[in-house]
Amino acid sequence: MADNAPDQESDYESGGTTSSGRGPLRGMRNRGGGPSGTGGPHLRRPARHGAPSEQIDKELLRQLDNEEPLSIAEELDKAAERVRRSGGAIAKATEPDQNIHIAELQQLSTQELLEIAESEGVENTAGLKKQDLIFRILKERVKLQGMMVGQGTLEILPDGFGFLRSPDYHYLSCPDDIYVSPSQIRRFNLRNGNTVSGTIRPPKENERYFALLRVESINGEDPNKLTKKIPYDDLTAVHPDVRIAMETTPEEVAMRVIDLIVPIGFGQRGLIVSPPRAGKTILMQKMARSVLKNYPDAYVMMLLIDERPEEVTDMEREVKGPNCEVISSTFDEPPSRHVQVSEMVIEKAKRMVEYGRDVVIFLDSVTRLARAWNSECPPSGKVLSGGLDANAMQRPKRFFGSARKVEEGGSLTIIATALIETGSRMDEVIFEEFKGTGNQEIFLDRKLVDKRIWPAIDIDRSGTRREEMLMDPEEHRRVNVLRRVLSEMNAPEAMDLLTTRLGKTKSNAEFLMSLKD
Fold first, then answer.
1. Which of 49, 175, 292, 489 is least enclosed, having the fewest CB within 10 Å?
2. CATH number at residue 398
3. CATH assignment at residue 181
4. Phi, psi at residue 145, to the nearest 5°?
5. Cβ–Cβ < 8 Å for 339, 333
6. Statement to judge: residues 444 and 416 lie in one domain
7. Is residue 80 part of a domain?
8. What is 439-497 written as a DSSP string?
9. Domain boundary among 227, 260, 281
């Protein structure tokens, strides 16, 4: 259970100093220090007693606030004693069927939320944004039903506190974010990217955010039963040796070509090098659908940076599932937003790998991410060709370099696109910086696009390092025979021949067995 209130009250009473006595808090008014705003807590202590007509048990909330942050397991022991003292009031507030799940409301459309608000008597809803509407509905419901259950991905701000962000809003700051106190972060050793679930309370007077009361799970596991996890940077990186089969149906020729020419393994660091309008986004979309279909336990994250809004909508409709997220920051967003969303995605992926999960990130594109970092990083005074700052590539390389297969279990796979032939010298420099950092490269060729040959993959230039670790020895031998034959043709002829032959067989295995030595 969280002790959000004690942290705030000590700040109120001490005139805005931290619990460690380090002096006044920075950004007291407007930067998010407590549930009361985006900054530090207000100096005035909030009212502790509600009107008698309110149906919230104020005494109960005060008891919950003034205790140490507990997990669900520790809370069970204290619950019985509190029930005996309160005559059953707490039991009523914490019954499972009385819990309100914020995530369920976040999945609804604005029209559905308006209908719910009207049916539940929420007033003055005209013109409200979706996030504000959810906030109003939750405040109305908690008066009638008691406790709420919230979940989100933790983002820790520089001042030490944090908020649980929702992937449904692409990790943007929203009114229904959940405040997490510094004491909770310290006790449970929480880090950026942890998925935290627990009981929350509504905002008090002069507060703006819901606050976490009790931590029930961290990354889906009981926080009291967790063994100490090894930090991601200390995990042992090894070559990918478990293959990700992209082949799904005989008609999906593009995925069958990738399985033959550029096999992908869990932990791969792949780069799709493409000129504009060569089909890179559609190729990534098909790859994501294949992973979701063939590996239901893998977690897929589509990260779209500086993309068009209609592309985001199409991706959300085409790539979906219980273990899938489509996170975006469109071209009309500032570079700081591109940077923030990319950091949230990579930190969440790292935390999942620490728990032994297989995570696959599709990034479109690493070129635009590098451009965003070039705008946001402090100037070093050294400018490379094309206007690229010398320090701008450090964070994008760290993002891309995070992909690895780890010996202790789990993997992080990153397939990113890099733009070439855009007419921008900066884009060429960015590609040169990333060239050779991956262990797989897929080159898309404009000549194939002009002749309407799909997928527009240049077979000779594309390949995977240590591909023999991902293939059966006999399969690898036959693929080498195929490559020798196709290398004697130009790129359009080679791909046209390959797709035609694949279309006559029902699987890659049947196609390879039909090859003659």
1. 49
2. 3.40.50.300
3. 2.40.50.140
4. -120, -10
5. no
6. yes
7. no
8. SEEEEB-HHHHHTT-SS-B-TTT-EETTGGGTS-HHHHHHHHHHHHHHTTS-HHHHHHH
9. 227
Detail the residues annotated as belonging to a binding site. 265-270, 277-282, 308
Residue 69, in any domain of the structure = no
129 and 218 housed in the same domain: yes
Among 240, 250, 260, 317, CA closest to 285: 317
E strand or H helix at 304: strand 299-307
Which string of b and e fits 264-287 if b means at least 16 CB within 10 Å? bbbbbbbbbbbbeebbbbebbbbb
Report how far residue 309's alpha carbon sits from residue 334's, in angstroms, rounded to the nearest whole number: 14
CA dist., res. 55 & res. 58, Å (int): 9
Q: Tell me whether residue 12 is in a domain.
A: no
In a domain, 171, yes or no: yes
Residues in the chain, overall count: 517
Which residues define the annotated binding site for ATP?
265-270, 277-282, 308
- Could you report the per-residue pLDDT of 97-154, keeping only the tens digit for each? 445 567 777 778 888 888 888 887 777 777 788 878 887 787 777 666 656 788 999 9
From start to end of 381-492, where are the E strands?
Answer: 404-406, 411-419, 440-443, 463-464
Choice among 86-90, 216-220, 299-303 with the minimum mean pLDDT: 86-90
70 band by pLDDT with thresholds 50, 70 and 90: low
The answer to whether 125 touches 117, Cβ cutoff 8 Å, is: yes
Question: Which of 192, 227, 262 marks a domain boundary?
Answer: 227
Domain count within the chain: 2
pLDDT of residue 83: 42
Q: What is the pLDDT of residues 397-421, one digit of tens each?
A: 999 999 999 999 899 999 999 999 9
Instruction: Give the model confidence (pLDDT) of 314-363 as tens digits.
Output: 999 999 999 999 999 999 999 999 999 999 999 999 999 999 999 999 99
